[in-house]
Amino acid sequence: MTTTERQVPPLQADERTMLESWLDFHRLTLATKCEGLDEAQLRQTSAPPSELSLLGLVRHMTDVERHWFRRVLDGQDAKPLYWSDADQDGDFHLTEADTVEAGFAAWRAEIAAARTAADGRSLNDIGKGRWRDQECSLRWIYVHMIEEYARHNGHADLLRERIDGSTGA
Q1: Is-above-0.85 flag for pTM?
Q2: How would DSSP label each residue in 92-155?
Q3: Which residue, among 109, 33, 104, has the nearest Cα to 69 in the 3D structure?
Q4: Cα–Cα–Cα angle for 7, 9, 14, nearest 5°?
Q5: Three-state secondary-structure class, residue 25
Q6: pLDDT in tens, 5-64
């Protein structure tokens, strides 16, 4: 049973409302895919040798939110929480110390920080940081984040079906 409230983005709205609605829709889609599962299920990997898990996807999206909104948009020196140069897939490399509660709390905190960073900026505003030595507008960041979530929500669909047969939504 799903308890996460997701609304289909409006069919007619201004561009910013549309972009923010789609981003929130995809954020909630990932939450829905994880809903009702226990710690072991959220840690379950897809198939060897892959280390892809729903908790790993949540951790990955935590660092993605952090990167694009804190670093690129707001210019903060916000280091990744889970990956490093030495372990670029660290978000997917779960240890016993990595709990579901901590993973979801960090994800929610980064979503809140993203909203704060975007608040009061226009879609044309250029971020204070750079990506690959390029400047990015808030519009580009929103579109990229929607793409990033949509792609990984496809992975989440397959992971959830493998765990308990749940499909859809």
Answers
A1: yes
A2: T---TT--HHHHHHHHHHHHHHHHHHHTT--TTPBPSS-BTTB--BHHHHHHHHHHHHHHHHHH
A3: 109
A4: 145
A5: helix
A6: 788 999 999 999 999 999 999 999 999 999 999 999 999 998 888 999 999 999 999 999
Give the pLDDT band (50/70/90) at residue 113: very high
Q: Is the pLDDT assigned to residue 83 strictly greater than 80?
A: yes
Q: Are 45 and 32 in contact (CB under 8 A)?
A: no
Question: Nearest-5° angle of CA 86, CA 46, CA 148?
Answer: 65
Number of H helices, E strands in the chain: 5, 0
Q: 38: closest CA among 156, 163, 169?
A: 163
Beta bridge partners of 157: none
- Bridge partners (DSSP) of residue 126 are 137
Tokens (6 digits) for 53? 């898990």
